[in-house]
Structure formats: C-alpha cells, structure tokens
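Figure 6 in text form: structure in, sequence out.
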C-alpha cells in the first residue's frame, strides 16, 4: 500500500510564506516544517493558485 501525505491549504500557505520571508532553501524549509520530501515544497508552489481559491 502506498501512503501519500496530504497537507491543508493553510499549512501550505504558511510554509510558502515562511520560505519567502526567511529566504530559506527548499531543503531547509522542508526540514523546518517536517515535510519528508523536498519535491513536496515545489508542489506547494505549483499549486498555490488552487490554494487561494479554496
């Protein structure tokens, strides 16, 4: 069975806002927020227009 972590829109926005404010890298941001895959942070950025609508 494959388990995929899901994150709430507010959490995604908090992560992206923190990354923008602090200027940290994808890997440092993922570590800080305990996101297991760095690629997930990039996915947050790609989905930000969807987050705003919800």
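Output sequence:
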């Amino acid at each position: 069975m494959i388990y995929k972590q899901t994150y709430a829109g507010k959490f995604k926005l908090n992560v992206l806002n923190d990354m923008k404010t602090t200027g940290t890298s994808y890997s440092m941001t993922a570590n800080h927020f305990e996101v297991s895959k760095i690629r997930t942070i990039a996915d947050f950025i790609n989905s930000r227009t969807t987050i705003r609508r919800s």
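Caption detail: Residues 26 and 39 are 8 Å apart (CA to CA).
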